[in-house]
Amino acid sequence: MPLNNKEDLGTEKDGSKNNQYCKYCYVNGEFTNPGMSLDEMRMLIMDRMKKEKIPEDIIEAAVTSLPHLRRWKTEVRIAKSNIENG
């Protein structure tokens, strides 16, 4: 989700805004669905943004940015290692 508006930002335990995660993913310093995989998140983002009639290029940018978030870096690294090691 594009984080263009302050009201779209997630929150820390102290109520401050988190600039990396949106209000749907991160509340009170915790992920709302900590067990969600990167692929599940991609599908969720695409579905929600399409329902809101967000342009395809914005949806693509949001989905493409997911693996670069701190939340997913470990999962992406493990997947690449598994592919390389066959």
Low-confidence stretches: none
Shape: globular
In terms of structural class, how would the helical and strand content be classed?
Answer: alpha+beta
- For the record, give the distance between the C-alpha atoms at the N and C termini, rounded to a whole number: 33 Å
The count of DSSP E runs of length 2 or more, i.e. the number of strands, is: 4
Largest beta-sheet details = 2 strands, antiparallel
Radius of gyration: 14 Å
Mean pLDDT equals 84
> What order do the helices and strands follow?
EEEEHHH
Q: What is the helix content?
A: 40-55%
Reading side by side through the largest sheet, how are the strands ordered?
A: 1-2
Give the amount of beta strand, in percent.
15-25%
In total, the number of domains comes to: 2
Q: How many alpha or pi helices?
A: 3
SSE layout and pairing:
Layout: E1 9-11, E2 17-22, E3 26-27, E4 30-31, H1 38-51, H2 56-65, H3 70-84
Antiparallel strand pairs: 1-2, 3-4
Helix pairs in contact: 1-2
Short description:
The protein contains 3 helices and 4 strands, in the order E-E-E-E-H-H-H. With 86 residues, it is an alpha+beta fold.
Report on the structure:
With 86 residues, the chain is of the alpha+beta class. It folds into 2 domains: 7-34, no CATH class; 37-86. It is built from 3 helices and 4 strands, in the order E-E-E-E-H-H-H. It has helices at 38-51, 56-65, 70-84, and strands spanning 9-11, 17-22, 26-27, 30-31. The strands form 2 sheets. The chain has a two-stranded antiparallel ribbon with strand order 1-2. A two-stranded antiparallel ribbon has the order 3-4. Strand 3 (26-27) and strand 4 (30-31) form a beta hairpin. Helix 1 (38-51) runs antiparallel to helix 2 (56-65). The longest helix is centred in the last third of the chain and has 15 residues, at 70-84. The protein is globular and about 35 Å long. The termini are far apart. The relative contact order is 0.13. The mean pLDDT is 84.
